[in-house]
Structures
1.
Amino acid sequence: MPKIKTHKSTSKRFRRTKGGKGKLMRTKLGKSHLRRKKSKRAKSLYDEMVPVVSSGTKKRVRRLAPYLHEKGS
């Protein structure tokens, strides 16, 4: 059985947590631009990663990046 190709932008946007649970994590939206107006505290909150809660998104990521769980990070 041949390997399945990984969607590269999906593998860069999502991570799995280490440990037993292995939750799917994503970065917060709005991090890339229009940050000059925001306070330092508001900008630092963008650095955190949040868990994915939508089951549809989880299924889509699993289809696009089938080896994401094996990566270890």
2.
Amino acid sequence: MTITITAFEAALDKGRGLARDMRVRWALEEVGQPYAVRYVAWEEFKEEAHLARNPFAQIPTYEEGDLTLFESGAIVLHIAERFPGLLPQDAAARARAIMWMFAALSTVEPPIIDRDVVKYAERGKIWQGERLAMTDARIRGRLRQLSARLGESEWLDGAFSAADIIMAHLLSRLEGSGLLEERANLAAYVARAEARPAYQRAFAAQKAAWEANT
């Protein structure tokens, strides 16, 4: 059965690979699964057809036969469980990889997304500077903790896994901010992840789609 994912017709990141469908593309590339992409225009997000796939009017979604999923973390976990290569065989190592997926989405990502909200949605507000400083302080705290745990390891826990897809992708939102660069091992971690052939294929596909739709 053909796997179909949804993505922005014209993503706001302008082909930088930051939209969350990138995580799903990357996971599918890692496990060698072909997929089709349904591009959704902004005016279609709250239409019934898309709300049937995601009631929160977001991307990405995943469809395979009768199965429809939303939430990038859930989709990447499904791919990792459905196809070999992104989760360890050992039960304890597998549990730790899934733990790291939750940590990435629930603990590390929220202040990073808050930073984007402050930078763009609150631009020009009198409190923006103070809010940005507070958000950056929260991010620095999380990066300090993550950096200490990663140390000199290549990946989060043993071999590359679905957890590294989620973690490296969300950290990439900080590239160029100076925050990621303060932690050399985290910057190197993201660079290693982005050098993987599967990431490069996913990035090229997402960028080509943005260029074709803008």
3.
Amino acid sequence: MSTLLSRHQEPDNTGLVQSITPERAQWKHVGFDVYHLHQGQYLQQVTGDQEVCLVLVTGRADINTKKEDWKDLGDRMSVFEEKAPHAVYVPHSNEFTVTATTNLEIAVCRAPGFGDHAARLIPPESMGRETRGQGTNTRHVCNILPQTEPADSLLVVEVITPNGSWSSYPPHKHDTDNMPSESQLEEIYYHRLQPSQGFAFQRVYTDDRSLDETMVVHDGDVVMVPRGYHPAGAPHGYDLYYLNVMAGPSRVWKFKNDPAHEWIVQL
């Protein structure tokens, strides 16, 4: 199996189903965990030298930090509802407790933290939503923690790609610190499918093909993108959702399309 692909696992006794550390991914910035918590189950962690974005993928929860306390957040029971999620930003040198008030799927997104930002709720109505592309290149984007909002390293976005369509397409990359034309960002893709028995494809490749892998992804799988182009395709009949987490030396998303496929954006 590809070292870039992390298969969905059954929850352990803490509810953990995915865990991507910088050591596992062999990179420097992004950490990513997913928990499936039963109603009443809780997750408690300290942030240390990391900032954290908690994304309520589905379900409801109480969340508190050192100073803040938010009750019964979340109203989305499927990622394929036409709703943005609730999220909470927690800075470094802080802590958080998540208590599930229904069955809960929560993503814990991490990257280096060093600023003086306050913990805050990121409500759905604050998240920009847009449709990009056309035809079989259509995708629906929700900007959870974009570069226009306060944070130190993290960029968080979710995307729904309708069945039969492509996403992150034309193939693009952001693996070179060459501003203002391209930024260097590691990236996580957390995939969900509707219906859940489906599959999708993701390719990760570089110009020199020293990295060139095509993976079949199933519901709950994670793809790690350390470098290279990384398009994803959803077969007919199966809608594809993914949660992206990015971080790198600069908190800027500037990408470069594969020159061989640049012509597609001119259509």
